[in-house]
Amino acid sequence: RCPKLEILSLKRSSMPHVALNCPLLHELDLASCHKLSDAAIRAAATSCPLLESLDMSNCSSVSDETLREIAISCGSLHILDASYCPNISLESVRLPMLTVLKLHSCEGITSASMAAVAFSYMLEVLELDNCNLLVSVSLDLPRLKAIRLVHCRKFVDLCLKSSVLSSVSVSNCPSLQRINITSEALKKLVLQKQDSLTILLLQCHCLEEVDLSECGSLTNSVCEVFSTGGGCPVLRSLFLDSCEELTSVNFHSSSLVSLSLSGCRKLTRIELRCPLLEHVSLEDCDHLEVASFSSVGLRSLNLGICPKLNVLRVEAPRMVSLELKGCGVLSEALIYCPLLTSLDASFC
Predict the structure, then answer these.
(1) For residue 16, what is the DSSP state?
(2) Which residues belong to the signal peptide in this entry (predicted)?
(3) pTM higher than 0.90 for the full model?
């Protein structure tokens, strides 16, 4: 009975009952209160009409009924952490006022639960780590800024549309096959080691850096995503290291500055028309046979690490050094590099 109390934490308390008469309370932490019943948690939260932040993580008794009651009684609730609550599925739950929703390791969260999340049109942050029954997420939320999907082992399909989306954390989702993202704020996208990823669709006009290293199922079609007209007009850095299904790479980009293809052992052909390209890595691309660099910004290039290179075309107005030493089967070379001062074609 504290009429002026605004913040209360009962975290890890062992009490079996709680009754609150705190009309000004706006922050309540009930995390890991294992002995509190579902009814007790419901009564405590709904008695605080001005509640803005509620943490009920690791309260295994919490049900969807409690969430429905809270949605009705706490119209100012913006932050909700219901992580590690196995009995919630968000069935028929509507929480339109939320800006932050955390649902880590919630066993009842499935793709159907996303219908409820879609009603949270104010949502800015969504965290779904370790939701092992989640198969797909498709959300069009105008204020969504950040989403986390880590260790979701059955997760297959991600479709996001938000003009302010600036952070996408997706990792250790071994079944993920398809990603479709539309954003005007996303600048960096890291999707390393997504072994099943085959389809990537991006409309991200501010995206500058993408890391798809060790995405072993990506095919040559990924080049269309990052070439002119593909939806990433200001992309500067692209990492495709150890993408072992790539056999032919063709990029036409007016913005790309750095490209890494290290470890792409099946790559046999590369064609780059990137006037700003300054750095390219081809380490362990030992099956490369045809290479074309048309109007690139490279100042130096080492192709001596590509022993099977047969045809080479280089048009680089700024290039001063070209290393071909060891390209023993090179039979055709067209080189237009007016500033070239160093050329080593030993053993060619």
Answers:
(1) S
(2) none
(3) yes
Helix (H) or strand (E) run with residue 69 in it: helix 64-73
**DSSP 8-state class, residue 39:** H
Q: What is the DSSP letter of 46?
A: H
Neighbour-count burial for 89-125, b at 16+ CB within 10 Å, e otherwise: bbbebbbebbbbbbbbbbebbbbebbebbebbebbbb
Residue 184 DSSP label: S
Cβ atoms of 91 and 68 closer than 8 Å: no
CA gap 60, 35 in Å, rounded: 9
User: Which mean pLDDT values do the consecutive 10-residue runs of the chain (348 residues) have?
Assistant: 94 90 95 94 94 96 96 95 96 94 97 95 97 96 97 97 98 96 98 95 97 96 94 97 96 96 96 96 94 95 92 97 93 96 93
* Dihedral sign from CA coordinates of 137, 139, 143, 145: positive
Tokens read off for 314: 């280089």
Task: At 177, list the tokens.
Answer: 């096959």
Task: Note the Cα 244 to chain centre separation in Å.
Answer: 21
- The alpha carbon of 273 is separated from its chain's Cα centroid by a whole number of angstroms, namely 27
DSSP state of 111: G
Q: Is the dihedral of CA 161, 237, 197, 110 positive or negative?
A: negative
Cα-based distances in Å from 15 to 20, 30, 51, 67: 13, 11, 21, 21
Element (H, E) at 136: strand 136-140
**Among residues 225, 223, 224, 219, which one has the least CA distance to residue 196?**
219
Closest listed residue to residue 53, CA positions, set 28, 32, 74, 71: 28
- CA–CA separation, 267 and 286 (whole Å): 8
> In sequence order, what are the residues at sequence separation of 6 or more whose Cβ sits closer than 8 angstroms to the Cβ of residue 221?
none
